[in-house]
Every structure is written in structure tokens, then in C-alpha cells.
Amino acid sequence: MSSFNPLTSILNQNKLEGPKYVDWKKNLDIVLTAEGYKFVITDECPRKPKNATDDQVKAYDKWVKVDEMARCYILASMANVLQHQHQSMRSAYDMLKSLKEIFGEQNHAAKQTAMKVLLNTKMAEGSSVRDHVLKMMSLLNELEVLGAMIDKESQVEMVLQTLPDSFQQFCLNYNMNKMDLLVAKLLNELQTAESIIKQQAPVVALNVEKASVSKSKGGKKKKKAQKVLAPGGAAGVKKSKGK
């Protein structure tokens, strides 16, 4: 891996050695995605077409070149013993398939843990919908890296199921209008809904008890002051009128 590429430091510092497979795979995905090479680890090497057109030949040659680069990234980020086992494999796809078989138990356990966290995640009433959805997106991405297949529609449904009661109307509208959004776009819509929900929050009246109750000049006890909180959060004390 070239020393001038800052991305390579991610793999240099996190080489694949035994129990580090899950973290290594996450880092490999980051690097290959940034370089535009990730497609070669998800698709098998295509056969070179016979009687191919110039465009088909160029596409095939591009795939081969990208695959070579991906293989170099993978081999350079392995422990020596793993390099020896995989250097003769013809494609990055085959390498990842072999590694998945070797470290399958780690991958399976990590996938179960991530899925459990995802299913148990709920947004607390009054908390930030942005932070919540970003957390959900992170968990969904982690599951994808670990090999879990969750379609886009199911991802959105999982996010909607974790929202508190204040978003019930939003969820109802979403389903009734048969909206079809990706999670990133859904986040924008939820943030808009959140601002509307906050504006519609009711006025809350709090009775403030005084430390001691003193008698008025007429011998009667003073009425308790009532503190009123406006929707914007400003507070004022409303005093009762004397007779």
C-alpha cells in the first residue's frame, strides 16, 4: 500500500490477526469504499466475454485492475501466515469468502450482538431524533458490513418502530401516504416533524410551594403563587388579586 495515502494507515494499524477479524473487516470496507473498489469484494470476477465490444473489454479490464488493487490492500493488511494462505487466490472476492469461513464464528457472534442492540434501541421521549436515527444508521451499516441483508424498506420500518408516541401521527401519515424514503431522507422528514411537535407542545402550569406561608395583613393566608411556563420556556409568576 502506498505510504502517501492516509487511508492506508487505517489498515496498517489494524492488521488482520486472529480475533481482530470483525474490526479489520469494518476498516477494509471503509478503505475500499473510499477508493471505489468495494464492488469487487461483493461480486464474483466476471468472465471475459467472447467477441466482446470495445466497451465490454474496457469494463472487464477495469474490473481486473480494481480487483488487483483490492487484493493488494487485503494482503498487505494481513498477518504473514494469512498472506501465505491467500496470495495465490485469483480474486479479492475469493479471499474474503475464505476469510469469512475461517473467522465465521467471530462474524456470527458480532452480527448477533449488533442485531440485538438494534432491536432493543428505542428513542426516549424528548431526545434528539437526529441523534437517534444516526445511531440506527450506524447499527444498520455495521450489520451490512457483517453480511446481514436488510432491504431499504425494512430499514425504514425498523427506524419508525423505535420512535416514541409523539411521532405516532408522523408514522400514520407515512404509512397512509405510502411514502417510500431511504433512511437518510427519512431523517430530514423526522427533523421537520420534530420541530412541529415542539411548537405544538402544551403550556405546562406548575404550582410552586413557598417555603413558609405568612399571613396577610387582614389575617388571611396568602394564596400560593402560580408559575406558568410558556411554550418557549419563558416563565412568569402570576399573582392572585387581593379582595
UniProtKB/TrEMBL annotation:
Region called Disordered, residue ranges: 212-243
One Pfam family in the UniProt entry: Retrotran_gag_2
Superkingdom field: Eukaryota
Biased segments, Basic residues type: 217-226
Cross-referenced PANTHER family: OS01G0873500 PROTEIN, PTHR47481
Name this polypeptide is given: Uncharacterized protein LOC107825399
Phylogenetic lineage: Eukaryota, Viridiplantae, Streptophyta, Embryophyta, Tracheophyta
